[in-house]
Design goal:
globular; single chain; Immunoglobulin-like; 4-stranded antiparallel sheet; 144 residues; alpha+beta; 2 helices
Length: 144
């Protein structure tokens, strides 16, 4: 009988403890660029999110300033990069900042892009959106 009562008390205590923690914690989505099966966390910026009673806005610097926090990738002309972004965004657009300061839109298909056929240094920015918000991801790469 003592074992049964002890078991019931343990279950009640554990149930009470799990109800004391907040559920539905809002976590900022993370994004990774994948090159040769290696995952690299992209730099996050311009984060906005609205969910339940939480509203978050985080502005950031320019892509040129943000890439100082990222270890520049090195890849070959025409290589394919893959992206993995948390919470399945409803939309992803990619822009590429060229060495001469011009900006190009980049076609993304199945969360993959093809690197340029011309060598050089490039900064990529992914603009992602969800129903609850948006966020930018930035990385840089040297194409050989």
């Amino acid at each position: 009988m003592k074992k049964v009562i002890s078991l019931i008390l343990v279950v009640l205590i554990l149930t009470g403890c799990t109800n004391g923690f907040p559920n539905g914690v809002v976590r900022q989505p993370e994004g990774k660029v994948i090159l040769d099966d290696e995952h690299y966390a992209m730099i996050q910026s311009n984060y906005e999110w609205a969910e339940k009673n939480v509203h978050i806005t985080q502005a950031s610097s320019t892509p040129e300033e943000l890439v100082d926090e990222f270890e520049t990738l090195v890849a070959e002309k025409g290589d394919t990069l893959k992206f993995k972004i948390d919470k399945n965004p409803t939309s992803i657009t990619v822009t590429k900042l060229n060495e001469d300061g011009t900006i190009d839109s980049v076609e993304i298909e199945d969360n993959k892009i093809t690197l340029p056929s011309k060598g050089g240094y490039y900064i990529y920015e992914l603009n992602t959106t969800w129903v609850q918000g948006k966020e930018n991801f930035t990385f840089d790469i040297n194409v050989k």
